[in-house]
Amino acid sequence: MDESAAQVTFRRMLTTACSACNLRELCLPFGLNDDEIARLDRLVGARRKIGRQQHLYRAGAPFEALYAIRVGFFKTDVLNEDGREQVTGFQMPGEILGMDGISTERHSCNAIALEDSEVCVIPFEQLESLSRDIGTLQHHFHQVMSREIVRDHGVMMLLGTMRAEERLAAFLLNISQRFTTRGFSPAEFHLRMTREEIGSYLGLKLETVSRAFSKFQEQGLISVQQRRIRILDTPALKKMLERRNA
Amino acid sequence: MDESAAQVTFRRMLTTACSACNLRELCLPFGLNDDEIARLDRLVGARRKIGRQQHLYRAGAPFEALYAIRVGFFKTDVLNEDGREQVTGFQMPGEILGMDGISTERHSCNAIALEDSEVCVIPFEQLESLSRDIGTLQHHFHQVMSREIVRDHGVMMLLGTMRAEERLAAFLLNISQRFTTRGFSPAEFHLRMTREEIGSYLGLKLETVSRAFSKFQEQGLISVQQRRIRILDTPALKKMLERRNA
DNA sequence: CGGTCGTGTTGACGTGGATCAAACGCAACG
DNA sequence: CGTTGCGTTTGATCCACGTCAACACGACCG
User: Fold this and answer.
1) Interchain contact A88–B (C-beta under 8 A)
2) Which nucleotide lies at the shortest CA–C1' distance from B205?
3) Whole-number Å distance between alpha carbons of A215 and A207
4) How far is CA B244 from the centre of its chain?
């Protein structure tokens, strides 16, 4: 005896449905009404589990879909011809991955899970099609892409103008803020990435990152033990970014 | 006696019409058929002239439209609280400005003309509306935004992993390539920006930029006199970016 | 239980680019 | 034609971060 439509719907809600997802205020469904979310639900077909250190996609791979992170933590990076790596971002649940692939139909960076993770697969052609129907969805998607551009500008500012400790302070405040948005403690969290990955993101060597962590700890701004971070003095960290003149 | 519709249309073609614009293959009309371009024409209402050193828009200003550069040269920059500037890009004819404003309905950076310039104003709501009708336009717009994200990743790579001379080589090759696309000489061109602006973009001080120019000239890779650049050895510049290992 | 591997910390030292300072080229202008 | 001022070049010095190296720590495993 096969499942009733209601049963199928119910099971989907427990698993994938955007309408039941506690990330929907951070993710694509933001601003949609119930009916529109239902249509988005139908589009977001599969979920995909990605084990720690596995690629969600690789640079050069054909672009087919965007991915919304349900659980887990990712990094994206680019490698240039001589093997140097630049980490371009760290992504958390509710954030969208894959927009780099739209322009050439191929991904231009790698997306790698930093812990066992799960994403919702959003076939891109279908997303474009649906957003031709639903103006709110279209606009929100444009906002998501634009936000990525603005974020990238912030990283350029960081890499172009800040010194090592300022970069690390900015990084910690950014991570803290994003954990807060997701309902976690702003002050205490577990970093999923190595010192080397942080360094690559911040344009620093891992030793410099490690030293900056130690310095912050000596100054009583944070407490560090391995990847366990506790922020003790947020205002002081913020003040590091407001330093008058260059 | 008022103008006939034909005359109005004709005058518009000489001035604004996307259909008659020699940048259409670089700009938003790319990939559209004649009828679709005509509809885009109607949307791209005003043109706007921006004098040298004038702002096209400022960080914080309400976002209303995107801008397609018709003639001229722009820079975009962000300023942080303590006044440090980061140039996030230099833009040429056919490129689109303003996408940073979509996410918050306010611009997040400044766009400043580096010489007397002219842009086509593309009211954003109308663009969204039209691209709900024309899938090709919608997709192409998404590609334009995605390309900006990919470009930003390239800048992060540059700022995060390259040394001064590599950065300048990458900059020169990039400028040269974009001039070529626009039908100008790949080898000889006039820079519109100061050494300080180049430095801000590349995360270097103006003295370092100047020294790198001089060094390249000594090595016979380029010839420099003020902002007049002639590239003499493109392969050698490219080789600088392929240097094995970090 | 000892070995090994990946990750992180810390110290000593070197260097690429920043900083400080002076002078020059060139265009605008009285 | 000299003055003014901005942008650029060049030199001398400094220092933040990179490099190299040793060691510490925990997880995993034979």
Assistant:
1) yes
2) C18
3) 12
4) 31
